[in-house]
């Protein structure tokens, strides 16, 4: 209990309360020496440029509201106070119509609703979409204030609010205006325009005028383009077709020819055939993209005109760098985190792969990081992962990779097998096989046997494989972005050598398969070429020569293979094969087909006899040379036998009886 004060006694003085205990303990603040003392000034604070703009807008809004109020007062005075006696009756009627919508004035309320723009000038502030809102000013945070919820509503009006309305947005303003029932659209628009401010009406008219001008300008441009395409391009004379012209003119002529071919009947010249335009286009494309005539003609047969230009332009730019995670040593998430820490910008390659990563840019060389040297990943193209995914190897299987160098696909197979089973990695080139050995040691693969046999004879050495992967050697027309020398170096003889070798390798791979395998019996054929002679033609040949059928590859994307192309007609199941292009899938041009073997029986049909006859006709010259060589060899053998017989006759007979004497 505290002490009691004696207020009633005479001479007693009331004690004033001072600071508390905690306040007494605190010391006064110490000011640093040299700092000037702050003096409070009565001058107003200086406004920024944006604050001045806002203040000017508020002042304009206030003036506009005042003018609107004055106009409304004048109109009400004219209605309420008519000058003549005849006008009095009209004024009374107008008053009744204004006050009540029916004669039942006793129970109807007057139609008074709050205007769209509130009358209070201090509470309303305009909102500018381009200006930033200051956190200090609470008035500018809210923008336009919405209407109160206590607005009087009638049966003739629908509820509406003005939330988040921009002064420059006319559609938002029009949507928030209350709409009347039973009125046509024209009347509603007229009512809405009456409610708008003069500035808003002017802005609306300007916007409509700009739209009309833009549409008219677009139509004029289209008409000019059509007219220009018709008038500018004239088919060159026969003397000037072979003349060399600069590259910009070649590019423009290619565009003009493509436009003509897109609507040939409309834009072509009289007495000009489509073949003449296509030949001129072929010549211009060869000069512009630096292709030889043979290869460009093959590519033109594959694609329509729109896709043709897209493919040729995409083949000029390199594909993005991709890497494949080695699941035997790490996970993709951990590898990505480690490379990001080293300054590599990367992303997952897509939903179709769980081990692929795309590298956008890097501050360190991707092929020399500690993670690469430790075997955590392999530099591999995105398209090279697809054949292994289609093969779908299982654990504890006997698998062959017939053309394995440099070991990207073979290491992927071993990683999926989890180092179980047996993997035969074969490549005919011994120098390239060294790269397979190095990559397998770096990536920790222990279930493989590396061989250097000829793939055409491998069925005599290895047999009964559960699965076989044949990434056949090809012309490389799908990887022109990596090797631009393909554009001029490949001709018809190179193509013929490639597809004959591919046929032989494919038949040998099918013969080495075990059709009785409980888990496999599958073969995947792939090439980095887009030509049908190396893809669909080779698969169609195998379907006729062996008891195999095409099955689904299991790949979720890619375009279907050709069932008919110009003079070629392929098996209907060729739709199960998959093609990949640089301009549609952003990866190298690739072809993947999956076959299943059903027996070792070799079917015999009329097609096989015809093909054998064709092969015999092609090898007639070789056969003549072989017969000559055999005749020479036979003569040499006979001469050698005669010499041996003569030498045996001339030798002396050493008998024991003669030596005794």
Quick tags:
single chain, 661 residues, alpha/beta, Rossmann fold, 9-stranded mixed β-sheet, 4-stranded antiparallel β-sheet, 15 strands, flat
Outline the structure in words.
By secondary structure, this protein is of the alpha/beta class. Among the domains are: 59-112; 114-174, no CATH class; 322-611, 3-Layer(aba) Sandwich (Rossmann fold), CATH 3.40.50.150. It contains 24 helices and 15 strands. The strands form 3 sheets. Strands 5, 6, 7, 8, 9, 10, 11, 14 and 15 form a 9-stranded mixed beta sheet that branches. Strands 2-3-1-4 form a 4-stranded antiparallel beta sheet, covered by helices on one side. α16 (408-417) links the parallel β5 (398-401) and β6 (422-426). α8 packs antiparallel against α10, α10 crosses α11 (293-302) and α19 (492-511) packs parallel to α20 (536-545). It starts with 20 loop residues before the first helix and ends with a helix. The model is unreliable at 82-183, 616-628 and 646-661 (pLDDT under 50).
Produce the secondary structure layout.
Blueprint: H1 21-25, H2 49-80, H3 85-99, H4 138-142, H5 170-176, H6 185-195, H7 198-232, H8 247-262, H9 264-267, H10 274-289, H11 293-302, H12 305-316, E1 321-325, H13 332-341, E2 344-348, E3 356-362, H14 370-373, E4 377-379, H15 386-391, E5 398-401, H16 408-417, E6 422-426, H17 430-443, E7 448-451, E8 467-471, H18 486-489, H19 492-511, E9 522-527, H20 536-545, E10 548-551, E11 559-560, E12 564-565, E13 568-569, E14 578-580, H21 582-585, E15 590-597, H22 606-618, H23 620-650, H24 656-660
Parallel strand pairs: 5-6, 5-8, 6-7, 8-9
Antiparallel strand pairs: 1-3, 1-4, 2-3, 9-15, 10-15, 11-14, 12-13, 14-15
Helix pairs in contact: 8-10, 10-11, 19-20
């Amino acid at each position: 209990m505290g002490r009691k004060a004696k207020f009633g006694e005479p001479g007693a003085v009331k004690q004033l309360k001072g600071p508390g205990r905690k306040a007494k303990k605190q010391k006064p603040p110490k000011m640093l020496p040299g700092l000037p003392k702050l003096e409070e000034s009565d001058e107003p604070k200086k406004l920024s440029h944006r604050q001045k703009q806002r203040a000017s807008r508020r002042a304009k809004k206030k003036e506009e509201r005042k003018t609107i109020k004055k106009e409304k007062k004048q109109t009400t005075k004219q209605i309420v106070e008519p000058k003549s006696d005849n006008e009095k009756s009209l004024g009374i009627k107008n008053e009744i119509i204004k006050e009540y919508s029916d004669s039942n004035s006793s129970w109807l309320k007057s139609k008074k609703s709050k205007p769209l723009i509130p009358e209070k000038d201090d509470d309303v502030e305009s909102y500018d979409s381009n200006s930033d809102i200051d956190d200090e000013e609470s008035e500018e945070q809210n923008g336009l204030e919405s209407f109160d919820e206590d607005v009087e509503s009638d049966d003739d009006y629908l509820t509406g609010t003005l939330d988040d309305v921009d002064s420059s947005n006319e559609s938002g303003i029009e949507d928030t205006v209350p709409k009347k029932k039973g009125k046509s659209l024209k009347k509603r628009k007229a009512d809405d325009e009456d409610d708008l401010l003069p500035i808003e009406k002017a802005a609306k008219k300007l916007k409509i005028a700009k739209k009309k001008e833009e549409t008219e300008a677009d139509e004029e441009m289209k008409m000019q383009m059509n007219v220009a395409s018709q008038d500018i391009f004239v088919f060159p004379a026969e003397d000037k077709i072979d003349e060399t012209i600069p590259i910009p003119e070649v590019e423009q002529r290619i565009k003009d020819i493509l436009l003509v071919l897109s609507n040939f009947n409309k834009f072509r010249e009289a007495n000009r055939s489509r073949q003449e335009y296509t030949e001129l286009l072929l010549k211009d494309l060869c000069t512009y993209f630096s292709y030889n005539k043979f290869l460009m003609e093959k590519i033109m047969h594959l694609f329509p005109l729109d896709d043709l230009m897209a493919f040729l332009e995409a083949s000029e730019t390199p594909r993005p760098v991709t890497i494949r995670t080695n699941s035997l040593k790490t996970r993709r998430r951990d590898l990505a985190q480690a490379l990001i820490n080293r300054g590599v910008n990367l992303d997952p390659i897509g939903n179709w792969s769980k081990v692929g990563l795309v590298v956008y840019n890097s501050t360190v060389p991707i092929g020399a990081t500690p993670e690469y040297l430790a075997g955590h990943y392999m530099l591999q193209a995105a398209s090279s992962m697809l054949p292994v995914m289609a093969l779908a190897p299982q654990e504890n299987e006997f698998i062959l990779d017939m053309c394995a160098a440099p070991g990207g696909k073979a290491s992927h197979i071993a990683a999926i097998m989890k180092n179980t089973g047996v993997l035969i990695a074969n490549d005919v080139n011994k120098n390239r096989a060294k790269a397979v050995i190095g990559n397998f040691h770096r990536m920790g693969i222990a279930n493989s046997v590396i061989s250097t046999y000829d793939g055409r004879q491998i069925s005599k050495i290895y047999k009964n494989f559960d699965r076989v992967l044949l990434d056949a050697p090809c012309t490389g027309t799908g990887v022109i972005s990596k090797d631009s020398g393909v554009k001029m170096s490949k001709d018809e003889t190179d193509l013929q050598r490639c597809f004959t070798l591919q046929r032989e390798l494919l038949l040998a791979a099918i013969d080495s398969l075990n059709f009785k395998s409980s888990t496999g019996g599958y073969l995947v054929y792939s090439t980095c070429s887009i030509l049908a002679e190396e893809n669909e033609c080779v698969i169609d040949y195998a379907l006729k020569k062996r008891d195999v059928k095409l099955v689904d590859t299991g790949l979720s994307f890619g375009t279907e293979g050709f069932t008919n192309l110009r003079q070629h007609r392929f098996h209907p199941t060729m739709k199960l094969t998959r093609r990949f292009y640089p301009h549609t899938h952003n990866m190298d041009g690739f072809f993947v087909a999956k076959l299943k073997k059903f027996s070792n029986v070799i079917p015999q049909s009329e097609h096989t006899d015809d093909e054998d006859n064709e092969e015999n006709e092609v090898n007639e010259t070789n056969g003549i040379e072989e017969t000559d060589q055999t005749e020479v060899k036979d003569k040499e053998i006979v001469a050698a036998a005669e010499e041996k017989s003569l030498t045996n006759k001339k030798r002396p007979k050493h008998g024991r009886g003669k030596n005794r004497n």
